[in-house]
Amino acid sequence: MSATLLQGKNIATPLKESLKKEIEALKAKKGRAPRLVALQVGENPASAVYLKSQIKTAEALGIEYELKTLDGSTSQDGVLAEIDKLNKDEAVTGIIIQLPLPQGVDHRVIMSALDPAKDAEGMHPANLGRVLLGEPGPAPCTPVACMELIKSSGIKLRGVEAVIVGHSEIVGKPLSMMLLKEFATVSVCHIGTGERGLVPDYVKRAELLIVAVGKAGLIKGEWVKEGAIVVDVGINRVEGKLVGDVEFEEASKRAAQITPVPGGVGPLTVTMLMRNVVEAFKR
Fold it and tell me: Mean pLDDT across the chain, nearest whole number?
């Protein structure tokens, strides 16, 4: 078996075209464009790829984009003060906090300080609560991108054996709620699963496998179930190349469909971010 590639750009391209037309209409109606402000504290090489994609996509769509960079030594109170200014600025449509944050700045405190209506990444507790309840509202961009890719594969989610490796608040936890809403049977693997050596067992039975850990080659290709759908969220730099968390070559021999890295989840994630900004602007 040679897996078919699930490429994010195939979904992102028509969606961006639609968003661009919608933004042009909104600008004509309101006399201004949506404005997204990214707040970065210190230098974050880990977020450089995502940041570059944000700038490029916003420009292409007609969304005003501003990167505010605070010194890496800025205190948590200093970051909160900047967020307060952005919350109160009526010209700001959406805010995204570039992660990771420096040591001593609690990302949960920072996310909770955002105006939920301006939370472009859907990471405010109120917005995560909406995901839990299955209610509309801004939702975390990467899980939404994963769901779009999964649905594009044609898999019937009701009752499917879905395994998520990684239980972060950014991907694993909200994605598990989204899959449960579709009545998938969801297992979530994490560090405790790994400590017991059970990750291979879960992966081997997954009809739908999503991996979001950030460790190159964590999931061995030979573990992947024949005919599985594999969504690799991981982005790791190894010897100058970007690779995922799944051993791509070997997994491709067993999976029916698989996302490449780069080119899979990434291009769609930033499009979901911009869609959140447009929806916030409309509200």
Answer: 95
